[in-house]
Structure formats: structure tokens, C-alpha cells
């Protein structure tokens, strides 16, 4: 019976990430094809792929591919996009992460690639290496089996989403708060780095910050919850005992050092909350200083 349904109503970038991660980890044929599509050699071994990797406090790699060629380890740092805009300096941060991997001897070579619908790939100038959704879809369609046909259909839905031109809906009051926050930070607290706000949807309540002194630590100012998390992938060694004003919070794949601060309302004027914001930054500085002195890498 034909129900005229599609498998899912909408495909998100995370869905495509997981689709690619699965294929890269279980299908050598797909691995060879994908690496060749980027313009690299095909003779590979020890290939592994990982999703959503944040290293060195330099943002996030959507998919990290690691493989060996002649006993040399190569990393491919993949950015996956359906229709969202690039973040400010996003490609530059990919290069910084790649260089950091080389310096830390985690790999001997690295490459950066974009995976996105064809029209997206062809209308950007940051990523010179890219693999289009359409070419990946064709790869699956050419396999001529039920499993591959399903994956091709998922990519078709993602391509159609990009064609429809879906964009995040900006919230003017929330955007105004974020922009004022960014300007306040930039003027008073240069030790912290923050992406300049563009489109800011209504639900955007967690502001992400990075310290120039702390690699591998991401600060999340959770406005309405009234606390700041310094999040790190692995439990670190500490030089001194944790003070009572810092709480340890364990997540599924990371831990956070948490401090309480004032609750802030992103829909209310920044100016009327500026004293609370200033106090929150005092707490942030206090947390950053303690971690800088006490974290052992």
C-alpha cells in the first residue's frame, strides 16, 4: 500500500552527521570514495570517524576523520552545513585546530573539508575542498540496495530543505541583548573570546565564551539558569582542592566546573541588567583564574 509518506519530515545537520559517521566507521568502500572525493589518496588504514569534537578551545569540528597512510596519521576536519550561515571566522578556527593537532603530534597531516548541498558548496569561498550532498546521495543510489536507498532518501530531504531556504527566525530583543553583551565583553574583558552575534533565535539562552589562556575549556554563560559552566571533555587533575564556591557537574561526555551568578533575562534590556552582568563577569573571571592556576594538563 502506498501511504505517500516520507521517512522524516525534516533532516537536521546532526542527522547527516550520524549518517556519515556510521558509513565512515563501517564501510571501507565508502571511506575510499569519500577520501577520493575530497581529492586525497585511497590507500588508507585504521580509519575512525568521530562526531562533534571540541579541542583546544577553538570551536567544534562536526566530523573528525582519522586514518593512516604509510604509518602517517592524517586528520580530515569536516564542517557539515545544510542551510545555516557560517559563524564568524569559522574556517580560520578549523585551520587553528588543524595546526594545533600537528603541534601536539596527534597527526602528521590534516585537511579541511565542507559537506553540504551543492548550491551551498558552490556559493561559498572559505572551503576549497568539499563534497556535496548530491554526490553522496548518488554514491548510495548506485549501491542499489534497500539500506543505501534509504540513506539516499534522507539526503534528498536534506537537499530539499536547503532549497526551501529555511532560516532561523531572528528575535530582535534577544539579538539586542546578545549584541550588547558582546560589546560589553569586548570592551571590558578581552581575555575572553566570543563569536559576534548574527541571527539570534528567541531560545538562544547559552552564551559561549573561550579564554585565551585555557585550551580545551569552553565557558557557557547560562543566562536564565543563573550560572556559568566551564566545560571540559575529561576529568582533569587539580593542583589544589576544589573551593566550596565551585560545583562539579558531570555530563554524559564531559564535566563542568560551575559557579552561581545572577539570573539574566535575554528578552529584557541589557542596560537595566548591566550591574548583574558585571557581577556575572566577576564570577567568570574568578573561575577562569582558579582554573588557570589549578588545572593540570
Overview of this protein structure:
The protein has 297 residues and is of the alpha+beta class. The protein has two domains: 152 residues, no CATH class; 125 residues. Helices cover 38% and strands 25% of the residues. The strands form three sheets. The protein has a six-stranded antiparallel β-sheet. Strands 1-2-3-4-5 form a five-stranded mixed β-sheet, sandwiched between helices. A two-stranded antiparallel sheet has the order 10-13. A hairpin with a 6-residue loop joins β7 and β8. The radius of gyration is 21 Å and the shape is globular. It starts with 12 loop residues before the first helix and ends with a strand. The mean pLDDT is 87.
How many domains make up the 3D coordinates?
2
What percent of the residues sit in helical stretches (DSSP H or I)?
Answer: 25-40%
- What sort of overall outline do the alpha carbons produce when their principal axes are compared? globular
Strand order of the largest sheet: 6-7-8-9-12-11
Nearest-angstrom radius of gyration?
A: 21 Å
In N-to-C order, the SSE pattern is: HHEEEHEHEHHHEEEEEEEHE
Into which percentage range does the β-strand content fall?
15-25%
